[in-house]
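Progress against Task 2.4 (sequence-to-structure conversion) is shown through the following example record, which the project officer requested during the mid-term review.
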Amino acid sequence: MIYVCIPAHNEERTIGVLLWKIRKVMLEFGRDYEVLVLDDASSDGTSEALGRYGRVLPLSILKQESRAGYAGAVQRLLREALERSRYPKRDAAIVLQADFTESPDYIVPLIKAMEGGADIVAGVVEANGRPAPRAVRVARRIAPWVLGRAFGGAPVSDPLSGFRAYRLIVLKKALADYRGRDFLMTDGWASNVELLGLVVPHARRIVEAPLT
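Structure tokens generated for the chain above:
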């Protein structure tokens, strides 16, 4: 089972198109999957947009009444995937942004790399000659100073990216000491680096998948 985990806050303009694209990609790919969306206290029409897709794809909607933030949403989604999984050695969780930052098309190479034996597959953006968005360039520039050795010691070339596939047994081992407690203390792109640091000691093989 593939659990596609999507944190969403005020994403009514993109969430429907994203879900429809996921449905198309996964039907063609032919793997069992479930979409887990956390509606993180949205104040727009995100909830209504999500409600229209429950009958056309395997979708579970989690509701957060007060804002959890990106890291809080990712924590809840990954724990939900672990609770639902019957075969954590085989099942995987993928974290995907609700604003279409990453295309669902890239779910396929992430899962194929995992089926090839990887425990963690990290999506790495290739700019194809075009500059990355300014916010991304700034984050990458300041990350080594803010995160120190955690950034420099990361086993992937873009530790800020949250678009990754995790074998659930690796997450289960990494979170064994965090029962009932938060396992991410930072938020935003920094929490992606923090999460990577938690799971890496339990992974036998880590690979990258190029994205555009």
